[in-house]
Specification:
The complex is a heterotrimer of chains A (656), B (317) and C (255). Chain A has 29 helices and nine strands. Chain A has 656 residues and is mainly α. Chain B is of the alpha/beta class and 317 residues long. Classes of the chains: A mainly alpha (656), B alpha/beta (317), C alpha/beta (255).
Chain lengths: 656, 317, 255
């Protein structure tokens, strides 16, 4: 009997394992064929992420209810894992199947272990029921576009596996075959009273254990063909996610001699990096990214979830061609349409929300890189910006010699070649230099820094665009020429500390210029101003004005600058918060070079302006020139009379 | 000593720039006789602009525009008259014809002058960057070839009788006959032409999108004018290049130019400097256009333009 | 087909023109440079014609060493090679420019055969002399049509379209010919990065012609006084509408 069982099990296992292995091997080969990317730094943080994000389910708990549901099922499976082995052995030999010295045998006899098993088995079932309730009754919009049938099947399989486990244990207790004292099983024990002690139960005991094992084997074979693959890939994907400098995009190398070795972003699935392939394989279609995407929220074609699903499906469709070196079809428009690629504002809300560390922004930017740099296929209105920035030095098409005109009469030192380096260089940015509304923050910041007695200077016409708009549009080539030029200017002038009032400049200078030899201490103007206020070098008079602060994506989410601006606001007036704040802030709509692109559908900035107006505050404080322009427009377009002003402007007013 | 002026005409009606060129030439000639050359028909009223003798070149080829042939007629006449200067209007056609003349004679040509003083060398002030910069130059040549920047001088009448008219048939070679208009492709789709309109309403990048021009089109319609745009708009593919006002687009001289959301870059101003009056609508009171405009409204064009249209309707009802 | 496009490097001046101390040139420190707009369209047209009919397109410039940047830009969108007539800081007048270009064309045609079409911009954005293309045509003994917004090559002829009131005038010239074109001829493509990388390696033939004395001799440049205009501000936002209508009435445009 044992031999027959063993043979049957072996046969079933071989089939399941074979199917699993064949598919798994295909996926592994695909990932190994992915283009290189370096995610080896910071191992300590990576290990910590495994602990908090994977084991601790931290990102899932960003939504409490669904997070708890998933955590129950996940932790349940961790606890129940040894029972799989026990069940396998139990299939072969019903009685005394474990060598008595083995650790597994010891575990099976522990009361606390069978208690945990029972408790977690029930928790898993509760989780499954809750999940079904969420999906079938509550029906949140984040599931729109996900494969619900597949999810139901998986939930059914999980329920089946756990139920057959409980029933098997119950049957064994009824037959007096339990290894641990029955009293320790609060569920299996009462359940066992359903069964008699006769042959019916003996048969049922075999039925349950075989069902249990076959369900597991079936699940194993099904796993790599379904989104449940995430149980293998997610932990790996989390390990290789970005640990720091989240706002930094990975540079491309244009130096290779052979054109065939150059990578211009992602044109086909063969151009994807191994991390991007892993991203695609880790997606569970949960839709949390879709829920927080500002483009999706305002009716655009982009859903980050559908984007990754599209990439995944295309990857699997063309996978064997990739491995065989055959013909491939372009990702755009076959996996995703052009609209989807251009709708993105690179706010990173999707990346922040994703429980399995998928980095959607990298996919989008890589697709943009190919569209812009190879195919020259991108929104026509952005072409003017690209030409202006490349030849004219700034994306506004304004003449560089007039870049310091805003500073006329303020007494700000313009750093000329050969001058001694200032204590801190104020990097003004193109928007504040040239746009009439953004200029106010440059004027205020300069006045404040001078009033505090800082040795500060600006580069004037020698400051050109950091290249951020070009890079976010996908023109990595133009970006790199800016990076090199600016780094040369900064290094030659001996600058060591930079303060920037634009979060995009701040992000690029701090996180992206080091790749090109530029290593400086970079702070955002709100950080420096907050420090000056704390030190008493600037003493604002507190007011009673209600001020709601809007977090810029590139400050809060990409760079964790959240408390400094709030410190300033609370010293100036009465701070109010919006629901979507801090790292869960809602974009103003200008990121990803959208300042220069037409917006289809309803407006992201109006959505955010309405949210701000709903707080009842009279003033909307921002810390970014793009947010200033977009939200000022948004406020006016929605008929509100809120005042939109940069924190530096409000601070300067509070000093008078 | 005399001066020869090539006079463009539209079916016998001398063009405004041609009359301006005659006024300019009269000043340059300071008392010396002014001859003029026209091809095909005899243009009217040139006596009032100081022309002593009008030479009409007649040839079949002048039934349509043929720049090389016209230039050859100029060259032939100049060979007989030996003027100190040959002058034309600095229009597309005027510059084209004079370029042919200059190439045939291998003499220097000063195009688009605003001022010229005879001498050896002559001193000219000519236009660069479509009008945003002036060049003072010395013209070294036995015969001075010049074209006159349109609207640099006003056409001024003087008392005078109709000119004496002489007709001649220039001797034209095959090469002169090759470059001529052999057909038309009509693509004027009704509506007011940008270069002729008395009122032009333009918008720049501030329009935001092709649909953003709706208000501008409405206002232009109410004023019986044409719609123009800046180069950024045509480069973005929002409107056809035929709507572009600027140095490399269409140069206009309407009675009123309304520029909405246009900052006033030199290349754009080169296209609209000829306007009698300019109204700028802009959110930025420091925009360069405000130092070239007569009137301004500080505000968002999407709010201001519809308000103006509404006010016009109210005024008319 | 063999196409030649002559281009000029011009600064992107923006809002205000500032001169150097000696008033001989525009102050171009911190300014970007580009191919003058009319001839940018010429480059695009030449590249398209070669894509259509096969052959080779060559781009030429008479300009300072930095002008090689514009040659690389032209090659990035598809021109096959370049000729650089390097000059120093002194400006060349239109006759001298044309003569140098004619010499270069004759040299290149002796080696590689005649150019079916030579493209020029109708006028350079900066100097606006309107004559270089025509002079080159006469020196080469070829017909020339100017200010074109349409160019189509047939067998042995080029059909040219020139904008005229109410439509377009059509010329038909036998090849080889010279054409001067205007912006609006086409929408120049945005260069691809592989194109730019390849352009870095395409050949540029450099020579340094000597500048003859100028017969149209620049003495100095002058920025015209803003006619002292200060716009009368009629108001802010939509509230200004009544004041605007009053002005419209005064100007006589409100029928």
């Amino acid at each position: 009997m044992i031999v027959v069982s063993a043979l049957a099990l072996a046969a079933a296992s071989a089939v399941a394992a074979g199917l699993f292995a064949r598919r798994a091997w295909f996926l592994v080969r695909l990932v190994r064929a992915g283009k290189p990317v370096d995610r080896t730094a910071d191992v300590g943080r990576r290990v910590r992420n495994e602990a908090t994000i994977v084991l601790g389910q931290r990102k899932l708990f960003q939504r409490l209810g669904p997070g708890l549901v998933h955590a129950l099922i996940f932790w349940g499976f961790l606890v129940l894992f040894p029972t799989i082995l026990l069940a396998v052995l139990g299939v072969i030999d019903r009685d005394g199947f474990i060598p008595s010295g083995a650790p597994l045998a010891w575990l099976a006899r522990q009361g606390w272990f069978v208690l945990l098993v029972d408790v977690f088995a029930v928790l898993v079932l509760i989780g499954v029921v809750a999940a079904l309730w969420i999906r079938k009754v509550q029906r949140p919009p984040r599931f729109k576009g996900s494969h619900l049938g597949e999810a139901d099947l998986i939930l059914g399989l999980i329920a089946g596996i756990v139920s057959t486990l409980l029933l098997w244990h119950a049957a064994r207790i009824a037959l007096d075959l339990n290894e641990a004292p029955a009293g320790w099983s609060p569920v299996s024990n009462p359940l066992s009273s359903l069964f008699g002690t006769g042959t019916a139960t003996e048969v049922l005991e075999r039925v349950f254990v075989w069902a249990h094992v076959l369900l597991i084997l079936g699940f194993l074979a099904y796993l790599p063909h379904s989104k449940h693959l995430h149980i293998a890939t997610a932990a790996i994907n989390v390990f290789f996610g970005r640990t720091r400098a989240r706002g930094r995009l990975e540079p491309l190398d244009f130096e290779a001699e052979d054109e065939a070795d150059l990578r211009f972003g992602a044109g086909t699935v063969a151009d994807l990096t191994w991390k991007q392939m892993l991203d695609a394989m880790s997606c569970t279609e949960c839709g949390r990214c879709q829920d927080v995407c500002p483009a999706y929220a305002t009716g655009k074609a982009l859903s980050p979830k559908l984007l990754i699903m599209g990439v995944r499906d295309h990857l699997f469709r063309e996978g064997s061609q990739v491995l065989a070196g055959g013909e491939l079809s372009p990702l755009v428009p076959n996996a995703v349409t052009d609209d989807v690629v251009w709708d993105c504002v690179t706010c990173g809300a999707c990346v922040h929300e994703c429980p399995v560390s998928i980095e959607h922004v990298d996919h989008i930017v890589d697709m943009r890189r190919h569209l812009v740099m190879v195919e020259s296929r991108f929104p026509a209105e952005a072409e003017t910006m690209l030409r202006d920035v490349e030849r004219g030095g700034n994306p506004w098409g304004k003449p560089q010699p007039e870049r310091a005109a805003w500073a006329d009469g303020l007494g700000v030192r313009v750093l000329l070649p050969g001058d001694p380096a200032p204590e801190v260089l104020y990097w003004v940015g193109c928007a504040a230099s040239f746009d009439e509304r953004a200029r106010a923050s440059a004027v205020a910041t300069a006045k404040l820094l001078l009033a505090a007695g800082l040795d500060v200077a600006i580069l004037g016409p020698r400051e050109s665009c950091t290249g951020d708009p070009a890079r976010r549009m996908g023109n990595e080539y133009v970006f790199q020429s800016f990076a090199r030029e600016n780094v040369a200017t900064l290094n030659e002038s001996g600058v060591t500390k930079i303060v920037a009032s634009c979060p995009h400049c701040f992000n690029t200078l701090a996180n992206e210029y080091p790749d090109f030899g530029g290593r400086y201490e970079v702070v955002h103007h709100t950080e420096l101003l907050a420090e000056l206020v704390r030190d008493g070098r600037l003493a604002p008079v507190a007011g009673s004005e209600e001020i709601v602060y809007h977090d810029s994506c590139y400050l809060a989410r990409h760079n964790d600058v959240i408390s400094a601006p709030r410190e300033l606001v609370s010293r100036i007036g009465k701070p109010l918060e919006m629901a979507r704040s801090g790292k869960r802030t809602f974009c103003c709509g200008a990121g990803g070079a959208h300042m220069w692109m037409e917006e289809r559908g309803s407006q992201i900035n109006e959505e955010r302006a309405r949210e701000a107006a709903a707080t009842g505050a009279g003033t909307l404080a921002v810390a970014c020139p793009f947010c200033t322009l977009m939200l000022d427009d948004g406020v006016r377009q929605t008929g509100s009379d809120m005042r939109v002003a940069d924190v530096s402007v409000l601070l300067a007013e509070a000093l008078e | 000593m005399s001066v020869l002026v090539f006079v463009e005409h539209d079916g016998g009606e001398p063009t405004e720039p041609a009359l301006q060129a005659l006024t300019f030439a009269r000043g340059y000639a300071s008392g010396d006789p002014v001859h003029s050359l026209a091809v095909g028909l005899e243009p009217d009223g040139l006596g009032a602009y100081g022309v002593g003798t009008l030479h009409v070149a007649e040839h079949d080829v002048f039934g349509s525009y043929a720049p090389a042939a016209v230039a050859q007629a100029v060259v032939e006449l100049a060979g007989r008259l030996l003027p100190t200067a040959v002058i034309a209007a600095g229009t597309d056609a005027g510059n084209e014809v004079m370029a042919h003349v200059a190439a045939k004679l291998d003499l220097p040509l000063a195009a688009n002058c605003v001022e010229a003083t005879p001498g050896d060398p002559a001193r000219v002030t000519r236009v660069r960057w479509g009008g945003s910069l002036l060049e003072e130059a010395a013209l070294h040549a036995p015969v001075k070839l010049l074209t006159v920047q349109p609207h640099a001088v006003a056409a001024i009448e003087v008392p005078g009788e109709g000119p004496a008219v002489e007709r001649f048939a220039p001797v034209l070679g095959d090469a002169d006959l090759t470059v001529r208009v052999v057909g038309r492709t009509g693509e004027s789709a009704g509506g007011v032409s940008l270069s002729d309109a008395k009122v032009v309403v333009s918008a720049g990048r501030g329009a935001g999108s092709p649909e953003g021009f709706a208000g501008v089109e409405e206002l232009a319609g109410l004023l019986g004018g044409a719609v123009g745009c800046s180069r950024a708009v045509t480069m973005a593919g929002w409107r056809s290049h035929t709507d572009q006002v600027g140095q490399t687009g269409t140069k206009i001289a309407p009675d009123l130019y309304i520029a909405c959301g246009i900052s006033g870059a030199t290349q754009h101003m080169a296209g609209c400097k000829g306007a009698k009056a300019i109204l700028a609508i802009n959110v930025d009171r420091d925009a360069p256009i405000l130092s070239s405009a007569d009137y301004a409204v500080i505000g968002d064009l999407h709010e201001v333009v519809p308000a103006i249209s509404a006010e016009i309707r109210k005024a008319r009802s | 087909m063999r196409m030649l496009v002559c281009v000029k490097r011009v600064p992107m001046t923006g809002g205000k023109i500032v001169l150097t101390e000696d008033a001989q040139a525009i102050e171009t420190r911190h300014l970007g440079f580009t191919i003058s707009p009319h001839e940018e369209c010429g480059v695009e047209e030449a590249v398209r014609l070669v894509e259509q009919h096969g052959g080779e397109s060559v781009v030429l410039t008479l300009g300072p060493p930095e002008a090689v940047e514009q040659l690389r830009d032209a090659m990035a969108i598809g021109a096959d090679r370049a000729i650089h007539l390097e000059t120093d800081v002194e400006e060349w007048d239109p006759q001298a420019t044309a003569a140098a270009i004619v010499d270069a064309i004759r040299a290149d045609e002796a080696a590689s055969g005649p150019f079916d079409l030579v493209f020029f911009g109708n006028e350079a954005a900066d100097s606006g002399n309107y004559q270089v293309g025509t002079r080159v045509a006469y020196a080469l003994g070829r017909p020339v049509a100017t200010g074109l917004r349409g160019v189509a090559v047939g067998d042995g002829t080029v059909r040219c379209e020139q904008e005229a009131p109410g439509g377009r005038d059509v010329y038909e010239l036998p090849l080889p010919a010279v054409v001067t074109v205007k912006e609006g001829l086409n929408l120049p493509r945005y260069p691809s990065v592989p194109g730019r990388l390849r352009a870095q390696r395409k050949p540029v033939t450099v020579s340094s012609p000597s500048r003859p004395p100028s017969r149209l001799e620049k003495l100095r440049l002058v920025v015209p006084e803003g006619q002292g205009k200060e716009a009368t501000i009629l108001g802010h936002g939509p509230d200004a509408a009544p004041a605007v209508v009053e002005v419209l009435r005064e100007l006589g445009v409100l029928s």
